[in-house]
Amino acid sequence: MIRTLCLSACFALLSGALLAQSASIRPLTTAPINSIRGLCAVTDNVAWVSGTGGKVGRTLDGGKTWQWMSVPGCDTCDFRDVEAFSGEVAIVMAIATPARIYRTEDGGKHWEQTFYDNTPGMFLDAIAFWDENNGIAVGDPVEDHFVLLRTRNGGRSWEDMEEGLRAKFEEAPFAASGTSIATLPDSNWVLVTGGSQSRLYYKTPGSLSGSPIERYIGKKNAAGLFSVALRNAQSGVMVGGDYLHPADTKFTCYRLAGKYLESEATQTPPRGYRSCVAYLDADRYICTGPTGTDISTDGGRNWKPVKGEGYHVVQRARNGARVYLAGSKGRIAVLQP
């Protein structure tokens, strides 16, 4: 019996290692968008992307064909995040001042502006949803407090949250992939930041706490934690680094584990700064950045290269298994197992 269990464990490890070695990236198309950082895969066939120039893209056939659209009045908008619930309903978020959020219910034929704020210093970073009605948006601190917005009607309207989360000096989330915030059951969430200090903020029932991860040395506003992906309420992975030194592997990845999602550095880190991480299945995660894409088959402890280029953002289909990537120069691709 013990021998059988050992053989099974060894086979699982070997299968994971072979999968990591054989995985590659297959380009799908080049979009008429200079840079893509927003990505939401609803199913294996339905996916949305968003980026510079107020541009949004949609596929309904797994990336074989794409529809490109411009949100009216947003020629200078940089849509750093897109959240979608079907091929018809999607929400896009623009960074910088004024902060804007738009929603479409007809596949991008019409867009309604559901949030606008021209307060000096306003800069939204990411959006995440618990379900089709309830969502959260986070932004850089204004008057020393993070901007936290809540929607209860699918992004049709937004209101300030009551948490009043105070930021440290020169601390902020990053808008590199729209994944600096992630939701947990029971209206809870986690947020990762960078700058003067990298922190993991963990909203639990009745409390909101922040745990420092590491202090970064160098240009403060270029380094920190950029993305978080959760397997469940007690495990996940965070990635980041210094985007001005993208080949530096120091402080690029941490595992999260336990009731309070305590962090530990990985044993074999990704090959440099990573702007996005996504949970795949079982113990597999994938992360990407300008120097390449990496995959872990052991819960984020060790990372191996994936054949192909690096991207800004990666996501597995919410209701499926296909993994999409998108990045600079309008590149869109999928993971090829």
Mean pLDDT: 90
Radius of gyration: 19 Å
Beta fraction = over 45%
* End-to-end CA span: 32 Å
- Low-confidence blocks of residues: 1-18
Q: What's the tally of helices?
A: 1
Helix content: under 10%
Total DSSP E strands? 30
User: How do the strands of the widest beta sheet line up side by side?
Assistant: 1-30-29-28
Q: Rough shape? A: globular
Oligomer: single chain
The class by helix and strand makeup works out as: mainly beta
Query: How would you sum up the major sheet?
Result: 4 strands, antiparallel
Question: Could you please describe the fold and organization of this structure?
Answer:
The protein contains 1 helix and 30 strands. With 337 residues, it is mainly beta. The strands form 8 sheets. The chain has a 4-stranded antiparallel sheet, with no helix packed on it. A 4-stranded antiparallel sheet has the order 2-3-4-5, with no helix packed on it. β12 and β13 (159-160) form a beta hairpin. It starts with a helix and ends with a strand. Mean pLDDT is 90; it is low at 1-18.
